[in-house]
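Exercise: predict the fold of this chain.
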Amino acid sequence: MMAVVLAVGGGCSTSDSGETTGDASTDGAPPVSGDAAAGHDSGPAPGDASADATAPADAAPQCAKATDCTSKVCINGTCAPPTCSDGVKNEDETDLDCGGMICPACDTQKDCAVGTDCTSKVCADLGQGAGLQCQAPTCTDMVTNGTETATDCGGSCSPCAVGLACAVRADCTSDVCTNGVCVAAVCNDGVQNGTETDVDCGGASCPSCPDLEMCKVASDCQSGVCTAASGTCAAPTDTDGVQNGTETDVDCGGASAPACAATKKCLTSTDCLSDGCDYTNKCAVARSCTAHYGGDTCGTGGAGGVGDAQWESCCLTAPVTVGGTTTQLEKYKVTAGRMRTFLETIGGNVRGFAQSARAAGQLPALPTDAAHSVLEAAWDAYLPTSMEGNTNAGEISDCTYYDTSGSGCKANTTIPGLYTSAYRHVGGTIFRNNSQSEQGCSVGSPGTHTYWMSDEIQSDYFGDIPFEQDQTVLDTKPLQCVDYLVGQAFCVWDGGRLETQAEWLAAFGSTAQPWGASPAPLAVGSGTYTGCRFPSTSDVILRGANPNGCKAIPTASQSIEYADYMYSYEYPQLGTYDFSVFISAPGRFANRSATGHADVAYDIFEYSSNVKYNASPLSATFGWNYTGSWEVHDLEKTNTTFYTPLIDKYGKAGLRCAH
């Protein structure tokens, strides 16, 4: 096949038959624009095809005008292939040089057939006679277009949800774009996002914000205080009405706020006005009432009572007025558990406590002798220095059994440093010069001290047999078998002093005892009649069928529920020898005086601060409030002359403090 020579610059070519290409040749080729001269060399021009040859299959079609070409592009007499920049709508373009399978997508308002024809990917007929045209991007067209990073979100549209594509953090509702994807807000991403009120703090799920950070509500702040005017978290103060900073309760406790009142939350004793944080981390009424048993087990009902426990702090007080002066007198007798808290807190060093209190001016004067304090320095040598004591040089050696017919101790009873042991002051055998020959402070019958000690201590110090009752039972009962010195030290440590006889009488009142009942409370005697004693029996039972052969109540006003008198009480049941079961825990009986004080009559006697001073506690005496007792002692309410030495101990005598 011969190549066709394309005419360039107005020349012409001839076929081998002498015909020119500008003529209407027999093969129907279009005329060539330009000179169609004939008569030149009849031989074929180099590169031209002979007149009778067929053009190559891939030769571009000849054209005279654009419409001669399917591409609508005629360049120099030849049909050019379509391109996306030829200025002609050709091939499958939907508009000029755009749309279709090959060319770029079309801009807004260009014709289109499908969404892919458009840069916006939205091809629609808006019904205005223009037909299908590319539409401008919107944030509701269900297509990712415009500046959007995902369908209808990101860019100039609203931020995208977690998990959708993004370019910058502003593209995301979480305000966090990681590796081109919106991720959930977290409280350590270094960005204020989600519901946070400041960077990584505040809001519904992140930690509260430090002081001065932004906030909307109080819960956004560590201090619990959001200042409305500035919208920032305020620093804690002890007047902001919120528990914050180091406070243990609202505006109290901790490193800088004032100490807390009773029942407020605490962590240590210094958080409390009472200097006592109890076993429930609440401030106690007084620091001796921080333990459970003997601390908050005073009142009616429950173990040792009748019905549900109506218990409260054993350190509660109620006012009494004497000579125009009002004193807060404890509602209940001091329990063995309260004394345990005292001795364990100071390690049994009562002497050291008294000396420190004296140096600090914290020892009150005797109410009946202003020239002397309630614990004189002359008596210090008789105060214990530890729980078990010592035999150091200079300590007093004395005996527990004094030969009253002679001038000294009974043989083999002298004990070096006898008074240095706290254990010896709250139980066991009597000290020298005791007023009673048998004081009932041994563990064996008839009587016991309620201050529980281990079997080893019992054996080492007193030679007594072990307790029959658990410490949890004994700690709830009134302390007895204690001398004035340690009893008074306890009251001072707890913020008060022993009551006076006048204060006891003010609480006793002027009506018959127990209040409103006459004759005296029902008694059953020293025999063991468990079924007939309170709380096993009650007034209702004793006025009814009287099971167990109990004696009926003779009068309507007589009661077994109003006072612990003449073995009328027993809890727990008596075993072999431990008579502590006959001593009721404070408040178990229904009686209350007009001033609200419990057990003012019967149960055990109460020591007073009515002291007749002497430099020796063996000779100095103090008065008892002669209340009567569970062991048949009669009530002598007006007695003011019953005085015994300061080192006396008795199984039916204990304490009540005044503040």
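Check your answer against the key: The two ends are 135 Å apart (CA to CA).
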